[in-house]
């Protein structure tokens, strides 16, 4: 498994833990790990920029995303895309 595949799996695992029972779908993107999250009638979208995770191991993803309050930000914004950069969560596309 490639390094990026491991990181993508780790982000998906984080989302599954935070959005229990949700359908997590990976979305193809050239410069980020991107995910669609559907839970009941709610839709969420997350992009984590490749450059943000360059120096992070897959085992550190959960803690990293938790520090930036990613799931809480997604919940508060609803369908509006959340993007994780080196600076934290931003809204929309970088």
Task: Give a brief outline of the structure.
The chain is of the alpha+beta class. It has one domain (3-91). Helices cover 33% and strands 31% of the residues.
What is the tally of beta strands? 5
Assembly annotation: single chain
Rg over alpha carbons: 12 Å
What's the tally of helices?
Answer: 3
Poorly predicted regions are: none
Describe the structure.
The protein is of the alpha+beta class. It has one domain. The protein contains three helices and five strands, in the order H-E-E-E-H-H-E-E. Strands 1-2-3-4-5 form a five-stranded mixed sheet, with helices on one face. The longest helix is centred in the first third of the chain and has 16 residues, at 3-18. The radius of gyration is 12 Å and the shape is globular.
Which features does this protein show?
5-stranded mixed β-sheet; 94 residues; 5 strands
Topology of this structure?
Blueprint: H1 3-18, E1 23-27, E2 32-39, E3 42-49, H2 61-67, H3 70-77, E4 82-85, E5 88-91
Parallel strand pairs: 3-4
Antiparallel strand pairs: 1-2, 2-3, 4-5
């Amino acid at each position: 498994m490639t390094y990026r595949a491991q990181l993508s799996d780790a982000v998906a695992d984080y989302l599954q833990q935070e959005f229990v029972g949700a359908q997590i779908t990976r979305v193809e993107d050239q410069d980020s790990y991107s995910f669609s999250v559907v839970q009941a009638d709610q839709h969420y979208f997350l992009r984590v920029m490749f450059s943000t995770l360059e120096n992070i191991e897959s085992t550190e993803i959960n803690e990293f995303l938790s520090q930036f309050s990613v799931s809480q930000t997604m919940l508060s914004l609803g369908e509006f895309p959340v993007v994780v950069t080196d600076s934290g969560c931003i809204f929309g596309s970088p």
